[in-house]
Design brief:
The chain is mainly β and 570 residues long. The chain contains one helix and 44 strands. It has four domains: 33-43 and 45-117, Sandwich (Immunoglobulin-like); 119-334, no CATH class; 344-452, Lipocalin (Beta Barrel), CATH 2.40.128; 458-568, Quinohemoprotein amine dehydrogenase alpha subunit, domain 2 (Lipocalin), CATH 2.40.128. The radius of gyration is 24 Å and the shape is globular.
Length: 570
């Protein structure tokens, strides 16, 4: 049931994050010009009038934001009279430097800094969402779209819901939202109450906060061109997961080729769940029916399965099963267009991996790092496995192999240790730097990602030096679930501060907690962290950094198999 926000899955985007860095913009020295105010916080979309005073009495100035005359949409803009307008999303570092340059004497200038916080303006435009979990102990999932007006109102909402007994499509809704300066937010989507945390790119993790519901998900900006997507073309990887009405987890991974005529062909899929493990061929069809919406069928040896979907972009679509007994949800995304062929050489270098799910009686969490050699060996594997009651941090070995077809499907064998720990996995490559992965152990149904680490990175405490939004998931029994959502500030020196934690404790929402703690990275592939809450709790974690902009967390207390991810906010 773990859902990791797509930012963590977009390796190209992560490389951009890694280059952004963290921390605030410093105040440079003035040379004859004083700029005020300095150190003031400006919320997203708001304005701040800047003033400049020159020693020589000049009154005409050229205004810049971070060295760009007039600024831009990312940094915020500034007029010729010094009126600064903050961007809708905080820029890297959540701060900008405002410079006033004397027009008559361009060697004379002064600077001031402004910090930028989130506001309702940070949710502005069209969005697609997906969420799943339990409602009153029954599997529940929903996908949909809406528009936000930047001022707290949601409109043009449509959603598809599978509540375990029936399915409704394209149900209209409206709503409201409120965003705090740190990016923690509340929203009402029709009759559904959620909390979410914004991260870079305007994406968000969310949890449902209605009593007796345990639901988590994600929110993504919808492409401005989504409405023009009326056909699919080329190979796509799909990943669906959920629980059936008996609270048994099901996971599906596969690849299929779409044509503009509406046909889905040349597919292969792997299914893990209460039925016997399945690796089968799959075909199908799809059609669009307006409002960025459509339906699709997938036919395999178990029969025909129907889904609805919403278009996030030409590259990504969110899917929901139309079978009430199996409310699966997930996404499809395109593989590189042919003639790309995947083989053992396609995996080479350092990768972080994680899978989360459950067994018939308990939850399961696993995260680690390996170093494929391009020839079928995984090199040294460092990993943590947490099954309630048992925790293991091990160093081991393993192998991998791609299917001869070159379609991106492959298998992993990891020499795990511990009770019922899976040793075999199947994966499908989304791209050359990322794969969807799933266990093929009938006792453990868990799925997740394999993600290439930033090339050449050696992670130390200084590598993590910014604000992060994070999500956590823990399942100790099939119906005992913990969800966590919040923010953390890492200072590059091993300290965690200024954090907040919103919890869903098996359907009960307690008061928001503040967080502090420590973390430690010594240049290796694995680090440690301790989160301390204002409620008196202290939880140990292992952390596996992907880039300075994102890392995976796994709990190292055997009582709580936490698994989650942290993604840079700004």
């Amino acid at each position: 049931m773990l859902r990791i926000i797509k930012v963590l899955g977009l390796t190209t985007y992560l490389l951009i994050l890694g280059g952004c860095g963290g921390g605030s913009v410093g105040l440079s020295a003035s040379s004859g010009v004083t700029v005020t105010p300095s150190g003031t916080r400006v919320l997203a979309g708001a304005t701040q009038q800047m003033s400049a005073t020159a020693v020589d009495g000049s009154t005409a100035f050229t205004w810049q934001v971070n060295g760009t005359t007039g600024g831009n949409s990312t940094l915020g803009t500034i007029s010729g009279s010094g009126l600064y307008t903050a961007p809708d999303l905080p820029p890297p570092g959540a701060a900008v430097t405002i410079t006033a340059i004397e027009q008559a004497h361009t060697s004379q200038s002064g600077t001031a800094t402004l910090s930028i916080g989130y506001s309702n303006a940070s949710l502005n435009g069209a969005y697609v969402f997906s969420m799943s979990g339990l409602n009153a102990g029954v599997p529940w999932a929903a996908i949909g779209e809406f528009t936000a007006n930047g001022a707290g109102q949601l409109g043009k909402g449509l959603e598809d819901v599978n509540n375990g007994s029936s399915v409704s499509l394209k149900t209209a809704f409206s709503g409201t939202y409120n965003i705090s300066p740190n990016g923690l937010s509340t929203a009402v989507l029709g009759t559904v109450n959620i909390r979410f945390v914004l991260v870079t790119g305007g994406q968000a993790n969310l949890i449902r906060t209605d009593n007796n519901t345990v639901v988590e998900g994600s929110l993504f900006p919808q492409s401005q061109t989504a409405g023009s997507v009326t056909s699919l073309s080329g190979p796509y990887v799909f990943s669906f997961a959920g629980e059936n009405t008996a609270n048994q987890r099901i996971a599906v991974l596969g690849r299929i080729v779409a044509s503009s005529s509406g046909a889905l062909t040349a597919g292969t899929e792997d299914v893990n769940g209460p039925a016997p493990l399945l690796n089968a061929s799959v075909t199908g069809s799809y059609q669009f029916d307006g409002n960025n919406h459509g339906t699709a069928t997938f036919t395999d040896s178990n029969g025909t399965h129907t889904y609805s979907f919403y278009v996030e972009s030409a590259s990504d679509l969110e899917f929901l099963s139309s079978a009430p007994s199996q409310p699966l949800s997930g996404s499809i995304s395109p593989q590189p267009q042919q003639p790309v062929t995947f083989n053992n050489a396609s995996l080479n270098g350092g990768y972080v991996f994680f899978v989360g799910g459950n067994s018939p009686n308990s939850g399961y969490a696993q995260a680690g790092q390996f170093n494929p050699d391009g020839q079928g060996g995984l090199g040294t594997i460092t990993e943590d496995i947490n099954t309630p009651g048992t925790i293991a941090n091990i160093t081991t070995t393993g192998t991998y192999a791609f299917d001869p077809s070159g379609n991106g499907r492959g298998t992993l064998t990891i020499n795990n240790q511990g009770p019922n720990a899976p040793q075999t996995y199947v994966f499908y490559m989304d791209s050359s730097t990322q794969a969807q992965v799933m266990t093929t152990n009938s006792n453990i149904v868990a799925s997740g990602l394999i993600i290439a680490q930033q090339s050449g990175a050696s992670f130390s405490n200084a590598s993590l030096d910014t604000n992060y939004g994070f999500t956590l998931f823990s399942q100790t029994t099939p119906k005992s679930i913990f969800l966590g959502l919040g923010t953390l500030a890492l200072d590059g020196q091993g300290n965690l501060s200024g954090g907040n934690l919103i919890q869903n404790l098996n359907g009960t929402i307690p008061a928001t907690l503040s967080l502090t703690g420590t973390y430690q990275l010594n240049g290796g592939v694995r680090g440690t962290a301790t989160l301390i809450s204002s409620g008196g709790g202290s939880s140990p974690f292992a952390i596996y950094p992907v880039t300075p902009g994102a890392f995976v967390l796994i709990g190292t207390d055997a009582a709580s198999p936490y698994l989650g991810a942290a993604v840079m906010q700004y």
